Amino acid sequence: MTQKLEPVPARLRLPAGLRRFDPAVATAFGCIVALLLVGSFYSRSFLSPEYLLQQFQVGAFLALVATGMMVVVLLGQIDLSVPWIVTVGGMMSTAAAGHGAAGAALAIPFGVLCGVGLGVVNGIGVAYLRVPSMIFTLGIDAVAQGLMVLRTGGSAPQDMATPLMGQLATGHAILGMPNAVWVWIAVGTATVILLGRTTFGRSVYAIGNRESAAYLSGVHTRRIVLLAFALSGGLSALAGTMLAGYSGKAYQGMGDGYLLPAIAAVVLGGTSILGGRGSYLGTTAGVILITLLQSILSVVQMPDAGRQVIYGAVILAMLLLYGRSSRVGG
Amino acid sequence: MKDWQYRLRGARTTLSAIAVFIVIFALYAAKHDGGFTGNVAQTAANKGVLLAFVAIGQCFVVLTAGIDLSVGAVFILADCLASTLVTGSPLAVAFGVVAVLVAGLACGLVNGLIVVYGRLQPIVATIATGAIYFGLALWVRPEPGGDIDSNLADAVTGQLPGGIPSSLVLLLAIILLVWVPFRRSVMGRAVYAVGSSEASAYMSGLPIRRAKLLAYGFAGLFSAVGGLMLSFITYSGEASATNASTYTLNSIAAVVIGGVSLFGGAGSAIGAVFGALIFRTINDLLFVFDLDPLWQPLFLGLVLLAAVSFGSLRLLRIRNRLELFGQ
Amino acid sequence: MTQGLVQGVPLFQMSGISKRYGGVRALDGVDLTVEAGRIHAVLGENGAGKSSLIKCMSGVVQPDSGTMALDGRPIRFPDPAAANAAGIVCIFQELSLVPDLSVADNVIIADPPRRFGLIDRRRQRQLAEEALARAGASDVHPMALVRDLPLSRRQLVEIAKALARRPRLLILDEATSALTARDVTTVLQVLKDLRASGMALVYISHRMGEIAELADDCSVFRNGRHVASFEAGTRSDAEIIEMMIGREYSHAYPPKPPPVPDDRAPVLEVRRLGWAPRLSDISFDLRPGEVLGLGGLDGQGQRELLLALFGVLRGTTGDVLVEGKPVTLSGPSEAKSTRQGIALIPEDRKTEGLMLPMSVGANLTFASLDRISKGGFIDRTAESAAIAAMVKLLAIKTASPDLPVGALSGGNQQKVVIAKWLMRQPRIVLLNDPTRGIDVGTKQEIYRLLRRLADEGAAVLLYSTDYAELIGCCDRVLVLYDGRVVRELRGAAITEEALVRGALNIDVATTQEEAAA
């Protein structure tokens, strides 16, 4: 044959195991190490297992939200309904908990199911009505808020979290590791399998890369988008039920602090906001990075102002380092 | 078709926003207990213009097919800056006002530089800069408080002779002084062209980069005008995270309700202003109809969803399914 | 005006221009001389190098070697703006209009008249109306949005936009392709008027009738080379077509088996298929073992026909039967199902065929995930086996199936697209110009593959813009013109001349008259 192979970039010639470790994820982990070192200059306890486990426990809530967000971002969409779906998860599960033994047993599934329901509506709007996800999920956020305000009368609900919810969020049932971390591990493992080993995961990446090509390959692209939003809703609600367990009850605005950090974690982990590219390992790194950054900034008693500035500046610097789009206008 | 028909068609979305606003506001005014007085108008106007200014800012960026999630933070930063700078001698007050506006413009230009030359996606870039701007706001005003020149504040938020709310006059003046010339300038045309089709704009030799920079700069500037108004209304500054995110998200809702396309290239700041006023008046409408105020957020959400889903009717006309994936 | 007769210095001259895109040589040392006050027609088949030529002329791309001269002085164009400034304006096939701006805004987009720094709308409108009138589009309202105009009107606006720049040399690339017959008459008159005013025009068109009516000079291109230039009217249509197609046959095609008997049951029957306004009244049968070609000029409905058969188009009329049973094709997922067994190798592999950043393996199995998974879980062993089999079958050159498919050469990318569908072992294979822009070696492999598919019992429907390919590969060819089948050619009757004549639809009338007589 007369043709020549085009030269393969050096990065691509690495063996498969190393190639998976893309530069964004490597940079994110590098930043985690750097953060820990910086922290350990301030206090020895930064490298202690207790401190790290505690950070993982706190980070687990963000991790759940970021997992759902990542799947949606891989599609090239975004889910801005996180704040109130988290709250719906918390409030609905505690509400169910108030209905006797059966209610208590079903508290968590019920909360999660409510989140899935809202996610399905997001999916219908984005996949079938083709409304930009940025605005449709915003509307669902407002609707979720509206429903919760109606239910609770605008004040903190009196329902208490079930013991199971508390256990899940704060207990240490196995090997002294926080249960929240176990949940994170379980969800994370499931997501890795989902994205890497199933037709659903393959389709998510394909749609994010080129929806028209995925459609012409005979994939039900709309169904996949719908499922992804349902998953995101469910995971946000799960984070909400655990958060309610953590504080003993649900409250207004409990999900407010999760939207932007979740997007930041996903993007810092190397997932392209345009969709199609990203690994769950990267999102995990992003979650740890954000959690540690927040923790260190509070431990060194940095005033809130400086914390915000450094937080934004670090994210921006890292994005400029490796998150620049090469697909301008594309 | 006649000229006026084309004008009507071009302004269709803006005009429908205006019409919807008039209906809603008429209902509101008619049902208001005290009837339609200067005071009612003043309160309504003051509430409405805050979001209106931020929405104008958002509109510029959305016209280029971008998005600015830092407008709320700039809005709050301007409020906090104003509560420390806009006080003292008339000269100091004047300097303070200018400083606040310049700060807002600078924030917007930084966003623009990052998007244009840093090649970051607008959504993530402005999330990050938003955190920075909000941090600066907290640094300026860690605790709520501060002071504002009350003469200026009263003048801007009060009533002109005849009961006309002066904030509304200010809004109108800014639209006339900025938006109308912008719409007729080469740069204004470039902003629309970039949002409508960046490739065609390039082929036609338009200044793409400068157009985007200008749009983000204006977004910062107008958010700062909104923040300044907030400090005039509250006579103080407060670095409220809730307000920042509420105003960011509401500004997106306002531009969409006002008929600005999130895909860029279509809509107008006037539509965005009325989108903001509609959004605000709906709140008050529920109040005067004696509906439980608890229904408010749900109602707002449903209105927003209905407004955006309405556009999906266009899908019925698509005959080649590959076109669904265009844009 | 006597400018055109002054045989001093030509307005614009290109000599020895060459241009390569990657491994493909688009232009090979071509010359062209354009005189003021004359219309210069550029002729050639699809892929002869006409578009590359005008891209060099108008500064969109820069030639690798060769020189250009304007008024006898050497000149270079780093970008389109520089060419515009020098008075060379090109109207491309891909429209460059901004859809959300008004017609007037678009026509006067480059340098609008200003008063006090702002655009003077009244003056702009005057200028736009003048330009529209000169382009024969006075019926287009200057305030209408371009988005709302039909394609034919947009093309006229594009011409007006070019005229508003007051060019000395105007290049028109298929500027009449979307126009109605009446508009064409108007445009031709406009071009004649422009010529009379001393403007130089370069005119690219596939419509022989227009060229005969307009051109003063003709240049024929073939395979990136300049074949001949001559004064219009000095060569017959037949001679010109001969020049366009008279290329050495460099492609080796596999031998064709004896024709499939007409009484073999067709696997696909299309009955009066229509999709207004692009397709109308299309009927044909496709039998197992057959390679059926679709010919005609680009954009005569071939693409739509393939999409319709793959279930992508809504609102088609007529019937489609697969193995004798009427089917409703609701979309690609239904079309590819085992029941129908249809595969489509789409037109643009980068946007419709492949997910470029994803691995070769993931792309190969993506249309067949249902076959290699259980309960939604991908069977990795089965997947690697399927990938390995396809890489071997099509000799896809990749260091590893884990590489992103975007890192492969164009030819290998195209093989991946084809392999992706062969994995499903389809009964009906639809191909939309599968060899465009790929190297000769891979082309030959694809030809052999198509024949083998047919020999193994599949039915192949191949659209190609390369007539030689249709002749070499196909047992039968349907020539489309304006969304209709205007001719069916079989066996030895598939010649370049017959294809070109059919594509230009020039002697249908005569044959019909002959038949009547």
Structural account:
The complex is a heterotrimer of chains A (330), B (327) and C (517). Chain A is mainly α and 330 residues long. Chain A has one domain (47-297): ABC transporter involved in vitamin B12 uptake, BtuC (Orthogonal Bundle), CATH 1.10.3470. Chain A has 14 helices and no strands. The longest helix of chain A has 29 residues, at 100-128. In chain A, 56% of the residues are buried. Chain B has a single domain (36-304), classed as ABC transporter involved in vitamin B12 uptake, BtuC. Chain B has helices at 3-10, 12-31, 38-63, 71-85, 90-116, 122-140, 150-157, 166-183, 186-196, 198-203, 208-234, 241-257, 269-288, 296-310, and strands at 159-160, 164-165. In chain B, strands 1-2 form a two-stranded antiparallel ribbon. In chain B, α2 packs parallel to α13, α4 runs parallel beside α6 and α5 runs antiparallel to α11 (208-234). Chain C is α/β, with parallel strands linked by helices and 517 residues long. Chain C folds into four domains: 13-48 and 58-87 and 175-247, P-loop containing nucleotide triphosphate hydrolases (Rossmann fold, 3-Layer(aba) Sandwich), CATH 3.40.50.300; 96-166, no CATH class; 264-341 and 426-517, P-loop containing nucleotide triphosphate hydrolases (Rossmann fold, 3-Layer(aba) Sandwich); 352-425, no CATH class. Helices cover 33% and strands 24% of the residues of chain C. In chain C, the strands form six sheets. Chain C has a six-stranded mixed β-sheet with strand order 6-9-10-3-11-12, with helices on both faces. Chains in contact: A-B, A-C, B-C.
